[in-house]
Amino acid sequence: MAHNDTATGTPAGDTGNTRFILLISLVATIGGFLFGFDSGVINGTVDGLQAAFRSDSVGTGFNVASMLLGCAFGAFFAGRLADLYGRRALLIVAAAFFIVSAWGSGVATSSLEFVVYRVLGGLAVGAASVMSPAYISEVSAAHYRGRLATVQQIAIIGGLFAAFLSNYLLAKFAGASTQPLWGGHEAWRWMFWMEMAPAALFLVALLFIPESPRFLVVKARNAQALGVLVRLYGPTAGAAKLGEIEASLARDHHRPRLSDLVSRATGRLRPIVWVGIGLATFQQLVGINVVFYYGAVLWQAVGFSESDALLINVLSGALSIGACLLTVVLIDRIGRKPLLWVGSLGMAVTLGLVTVAFATGSLDARGTLQLSDSMGVLALVAANVYVVFFNLSWGPVMWVMLGEMFPNQIRGSGLAVAGLFQWGANFAITITFPVMLAGVGLAATYGFYAASAFVSIFFVLRYVHETKGRELEQMEG
Fold first, then answer.
1. Which one of 40, 285, 290, 462 is most buried, counting C-beta atoms within 10 A?
2. Architecture of domain 263-466
3. What are phi and psi of 186, to 5 degrees?
């Protein structure tokens, strides 16, 4: 009988095919790259959308946030559909949606047409946001699962960075985002079309990776599951892992369903689901996507030119990647919970400093917020340090935890509900920012985000439990 090696979580004698696991995980993270690109590309197109569709602040907010409606539904239904048809199958559908959305967003001639294509892209982003980390968690061993799942956040930030850099270069070549570029089409339209290349790569690459072995066991396709597990972990460890998965599912009924989220003992929603909802919601209430979606608008609102504002976005993207790389080193060493509460504390302080800086400003005749040189530097530095704290903690760790914290029986359903709340909160924050900017100003808006970060410290300390080093079959809810 094989004995377990406590350092690796796999039976002694099996080293597993780490290279194969890394390769298929990287394929899954292309979904994260597209998630980031599709989210960030809108940042440089706001002026073009306003000019092309003649929209006011509310209309612009809806054009920007419309994708998030699709994200909410995509995340919710992807979790459930993945339990029926598989993680890989849903990612293939998402890749096709990414291609169609990128093309359509660039050719749109009206707000309605644009919104339809952006919602379609949102369905793809929502599906990728929950299925990519779930797939990575389900093919990885516990001792390096956090590091591989964190690569998903690096891919997201890489996508954001690529979108910011692409937007900056296209606008620079054209002279402005609203000016014609190649083929007589405005630069902002080309910003969307740039996404078609990585989306096509994602679609092709997905055809060559296996389905999640845990999904195959749920579907009673145990021979296929064993074949995948042997490729992942080796013969001995693969057979042992198959037995563990079968045992974990045997403790409950075989086919997962949404009602599993309700405890049969209490008749109430399982505590682990509430924790997932809290993690998903707080990640958005701190206002990170205001920086991602409206960064150019934000920095122009405090006096920077469009070119400088787009360049600041590139800087923020580079800092974000660096922070995520540090998380890769730390997450399986110090754990998930310490990173979350340190991140919450750092974001509360830096957002508070941004709020103070914006509160000192005054409006000029055009309604642009004017800051003193010292306050402008404070706002710029604090905002970028805030981005670093987010991407060191809540950015990657929230997705890692959602992908691993739920028991096998409710992983798809738990991800569906948490994803719905995550994207719902994202939509609410995004669509209200232009209105709050025009109504109460930047200081009050960022004051709300700072308060949310402060409250999240106590949420983490009280309700979040560590998952570092635990096998998925050991998760309880």
1. 40
2. Up-down Bundle (1.20)
3. -60, 155
The identity of residue 463, as a single letter, is: Y
Using the Cα atoms of residue 277, residue 399, residue 201 and residue 317 in order, give the sign of their dihedral. positive
CA distance 11 to 428: 47
Q: Residue 474: its pLDDT value, please?
A: 54
Q: How far apart (Å, rounded) are the C-alpha atoms in residues 205 and 225?
A: 20
Kindly report, as residue ranges, where domains of CATH 1.20.1250.20 are found in the chain. Answer: 16-209, 263-466
The C-alpha atoms of residue 252 and residue 218 are separated, in whole angstroms, by 11
Nearest-angstrom CA–CA distance, 152 and 116: 27
| Strand 4-5, strand 362-363: pairing | unpaired
Bridge partners of residue 419, in order along the sequence: none
Give CA torsion, residues 457, 382, 153, 456, to 10 deg: 10
How far apart CA 95 and CA 125 sit, in angstroms, is: 9
Summarize the confidence of residues 177-193 as an average pLDDT: 74
List alpha helices for 286-410, DSSP H: 288-301, 306-334, 336-359, 373-392, 394-404
Q: Is the pLDDT of residue 252 over 70?
A: no
The CATH H-level (homologous superfamily) assignment of domain 16-209 is MFS general substrate transporter like domains (1.20.1250.20)
As a whole number of angstroms, the distance between CA 65 and CA 74 comes to 14
Q: What amino acid is encoded at 60 in this protein?
A: T
DSSP string, 73-139: HHHHHHHHHHHHH-HHHHHHHHHHHHHHHHHHHHH--SHHHHHHHHHHHHHHHHHHHHHHHHHHHHH
Task: Count the alpha carbons within 13 Å of 290 in the hemisphere toward its beta carbon.
Answer: 26
Please give the DSSP secondary-structure letter assigned to residue 210. Answer: P
Q: Judge residue 366's burial from the number of C-beta atoms within 10 Å of its C-beta, 0-12 exposed, 13-18 middle, 19 or more buried.
A: exposed
- Report the candidate in 292, 118, 302, 134 with the shortest Cα–Cα distance to residue 211: 134
Tokens standing for residue 449? 């985000």
Q: Which residues pair with 362 in a beta bridge?
A: 370
* Angle at CA of residue 260, ends 256 and 265, nearest 5°: 140
Residue in the block written with tokens 């899954």:
28
The conformational region for residue 475 under phi > 0 = left, psi -120 to 50 = alpha, else beta, is beta
Q: Does position 446 have pLDDT exceeding 90, yes or no?
A: no
* Contact of 310 with 422, CB cutoff 8 Å: no
Average pLDDT for the chain: 76
Pull the structure tokens for residue 430: 């995004």
Average pLDDT over residues 82-105: 87
How would you classify residue 269: left for phi > 0, otherwise alpha for psi between -120 and 50, otherwise beta? beta
Between the two ends of the chain, the Cα-to-Cα distance in Å is 31
State the pLDDT confidence band at 61, using cuts at 50, 70 and 90.
low
Give the integer Cα–Cα distance in Å for 264 and 176.
Answer: 59
